[in-house]
Amino acid sequence: MDEFFVMAQEKSFRVYSFQEEYGLKPLFDTKVVEDWSSCLNNPVLETKQFISSNHMDMCRFSGPKDPEYTKVAAALTHMLGIIESRVGTAKHRQSASRSQSPGTDREPSIPEPQGVRNDKDNRRIPTGTRQSIIEKLYFTEIDERLTNLTAAQRGTCRWFLTKPEYTSWRDPTQQSGYGGFLWIWGHPGTGKSTLMKLLFEEVKRDAKRNPRGGASPITLSFFFLARGTLEEKSTVGLYRSLLHQLFEEEADLQDSLEEALTADGARNIQANGWHEEALKQTFSHAIRKLGDRSLTIFVDALDECDDHQARDMVGFFEDLCELAQDNQVQLRICLSSRHYPHIETKGRNIILENEAGHKKDIEQYIKKKLRLPTSKDAQSLRLDLLEASRMIFLWVVLVVDILNKDYPSKSIKQMGRRLREIPKELGDLFEMILQRDGENPEVLQICLKWILFAERPMKLQELYFAVQFGLGEEGCSGAWDQDDVDLDAMKITVKEWSKGLSETKGKAFVVQFIHESVRDFLLGRYKYRWDEASENVEGRGHEILRDSCLAQVEAAIDQNVHAPRTPAGTKAEADQYREIMRSRFPFLEYSILKILHHANSAQHCGLDQGDFLGQFPLDYWKALNNVFEEVKIRRYGEEVNLLYLLAQKNLANLIKFCPPKGSCFYLEEGIHPSPRYGPPLFAALATGSTEAVRVLLEAEVQGQPSDSRLRGLLNQSLEEKRHLGNFSTRFRFLEFGGPLFHIAKEGDATLLEILFDSPFTDIHANSPDPWSGRAPLSYAAGRGHIDMVTLLLEKGADISHRNIHGQTPLSHAVGGGHPDMITLLLKEGADIEQGDKNDRAPLSHAAEKGHLDMVTLLLKEGADANQRDRHGRTPILYAAEKGQLGMVALLLKEGADANQRDRLGRTPISYAAEKGQLGIVTLLSEAGADIEQGDVDGRSPISYAAEKGRLDTVTLLLLRSGLHFDLKDKSGCTPLTRAARWNHTSVVEALLQSGADADSRDRDGRTPLSWAAGLNNQVIVKVLCASGALVDTKDRQGRTPLSWAAGSGDEATVKILCGSGALVDTKDEQGRTPLSWAAGAGKETIVRILYGSGARIDAKDDQGNTPLSWAALSLSRRVGEVTLGVLCARGAYVDSKDGQGRTPLSWAVSKKHLPAVKLLLSMDADITLEDDRGRTPLWYAAQNSDDEMMELLRVA
């Protein structure tokens, strides 16, 4: 494994370890494979992630969208991306190198000392954290809008590719004065998004069709969608998407994270998600690293993003373009928008409706889609339609559909009059469509409200039943009989309900408005036409949706839909039942998951939800929710009350109807066991429910004056949208820990101060958690949280408190790498030399981990560089063993003893040599380390290096003048013996070339050749024989190398030894020959080789056993009758008796080995021969009650 780590660091390997998060019930909730055993525990190389399942279920995914599967898939995708990008990246670097002129000054190339990590390897952000935050850039709908956009009709939009403004924008030589921007403006419905899709795809294709040499161009896109998720309509989503695409295409740009973020900042993102400023910083640093790679960005529909966010984004893009220019990077940005928001900026501008090419596209569409003859009247109607369109593509699409319904029942002239009656404004056209027949106005209203106010885009079958429940149709159960109505029929029905203003898109059959302008119209001028007398259209809309959801839940109750409190059976059975429910009741899942969200939105709009919550069927709701929840840990038990639910789901507007009884930091009385996240406040913190956190904490400080410092601190934190600590969904509440334990571990100073000052709490600053014995101060110090530590010390926290491992707050501050925290604790009286239960001081741990800045600080503050722990080890010993070259150099400079011995007598150079740390061995030897000093076992550094196969280290040590390389340890082993035993050929050769004694004998009299032969190290056997090693040297058992090789069964080694003149009949202390050992081991091939080399077939040992006797004695499932046959075929005496008078047949019968008995009988073995006790083979068969054997012997 050590070799793997070295290679992995050199090659920049990335290892992904997926671990089980939960234990098994039969094992009392313990894990099958513990965390320490299921990974490499090497944060430099490894990314660790938990799969939210136990050992049995962690590879049973429900499908491609299973959140646990996406973790694995993301890792695999990322690995593939790295593989694919490395060739391109290598080419880019070669190109950049070639492009540098010969006269350009270059930094001299300074080789790194072996064992020192370069800047790339010495990352500030742990690998696991780095990979996690990269994965957090992705969101499910990242390219949903682009994918669902209808492609441009054949032959349309391509005129844009030759427009001078566009071609000059793409020409890198014509960027001066335009800032790299191209703006496409247009009225709603002009077809901007369709055009942007075409441009994006053309630029991508062009890069593949016409590679310009050097680095590949990069093309990114983002299409805002106002009716989509938060990520689809916000600039945070835009930056996440662009960075995700950028890192996928060019993996080397991921290093920009190191320059943009601190380690703590990255950990905060890992816990709480990306925020805008971090995204901008990372993007800026990525731009700097582009080199000669050009970048083109397409951003569509700025008007579908918040106006303030859009303006800020454009300003940021302007800064990016200036940054790119300063760094000689080609950056081009194409933006499309309606004519608002109006943003003044540099760039080329194109107004789509003013373009002749756009007009021609509309003309072509009319010609193709308006189904009329080629008469003059028809042509005149087409021209009238074109002129009336005002170049609004959407208007043309809708009007063509209206006119096509008139033809051929109406004449061309009648259609012309119809055209003149159609409103020319898009909004007026929408209104005409909604009012044209006056049929089913209630259905229309309900359908439009569902599309408008649904928490997410609705699937067709969901919307179909949602509308029915919204209408209050009697007897509606929500059950779908697919034989009665299929998806095609639903599609027609929903289109009729919405008067054609909705469409069904994609394989998921998602219903949406035909254009975002429909939503604008409905929430703008048309909202005063809704059927409610109140102007609170949104609030009333959410109440209608809430009631529709409630009606579906109540229908499920009325029908006794089975909803077990906990889904029974295996995961596969639970998944199957869930799919059955989804198929049978399409609207039920949405109703369960979103009913409370609609109630919260209605409350936000001022509609009181107290009565609704008072009658809410919580228990049945939880049971149904658990049916649809795929991850077991996220299901709700009896202990979950409504307040916890509202806090976890960030339904802050509803919390006032069920405020906490007492402090929100504690579980309410009677709740046991604790829910997953514990008290409501922690549930809100863990899930990032900031509004719920605000409401709960405001209730906590309600007794404080409005101008109090505590209220000001809370308001400032919430207004700045600061995360109150590092809480995340991985958080687990431990009842024995109490709130102080959890806040110290995950929270921040604001929470801590509120906890201490709350009138509902009584907190002691030194309360340790009973699990590890760590006090709150220890956790806060380990996180580097200065404000929290200061507050805890003010509240009387013990600065010297030790956990069950004896670690102090200072130890944890050092372990966390927080120099400011170390300075503070030392200033407050922390003991710099205080050790843990193994007497290891903070300096020792910091040295082992290679924290140079920590060690420098501790030494400056007076730490002893030679302080010994319980095992007699000093910091330099740990640093040397772990390969921390820079640390060893620092400690030597600060007076560390290079020859310091621990209780095992080992020195720093001993550990470094064993690990193959060549740079450290060199450094220590030059500092005066004794390279021959033995430990308590007499082993020198070269002994350890030889045993581990560290050729470079062995070679280095051999070059040191005066080294006694045949120095024996207490077991009599020389370095050569150890290298031969552990099969390190190159080390053996190096030692032999340096004059090592090939025939040195250890305490058992064994030579290097003896060990190599017995362990089947055939190459080393050949090397030793070639060097003149004695082949017949006997050890204390009298065994020769050939004896050991014959018994271990390596044919090649036996041939080498026989070919080198080894005696084949030499006997050991028991009188056994090599042939005896081979026969006893069942090695028939070696028996053949030895016999062919002249071995005596019937040589007896001191017990009278011949090789055939040993073959019979050793019969078992592993050793069969084949060896007996080989020996008999070569003349072995079949009736030879041993010292007990027993024959091979006697032994074969007692071993119950029928094939061997049959073989011996076929060789005329005598069944009547008695042993010294007068027992025949038949007696042994009878003794074993072996009827088959007895019958065989009688017949014989």
UniProtKB/TrEMBL annotation:
Protein name, UniProt field: Ankyrin repeat-containing domain protein
Keywords from the UniProt entry: ANK repeat, Repeat
Domain of life of the organism encoding this protein: Eukaryota
Pfam family, one: NPHP3_N
Region span, Disordered: 88-127
Nephrocystin 3-like N-terminal domain span: 155-338
Cited InterPro entries: Ankyrin_rpt, Ankyrin_rpt-contain_sf, Multifunctional_ANK_Repeat, NPHP3-like_N, P-loop_NTPase
Key word Cell wall biogenesis/degradation present: no
Source organism of the structure: Chaetomium fimeti
PROSITE patterns: ANK_REP_REGION (PS50297), ANK_REPEAT (PS50088)
Per-repeat ranges for ANK: 772-804, 805-837, 838-870, 871-903, 904-936, 937-970, 971-1003, 1004-1036, 1037-1069, 1070-1102, 1140-1172
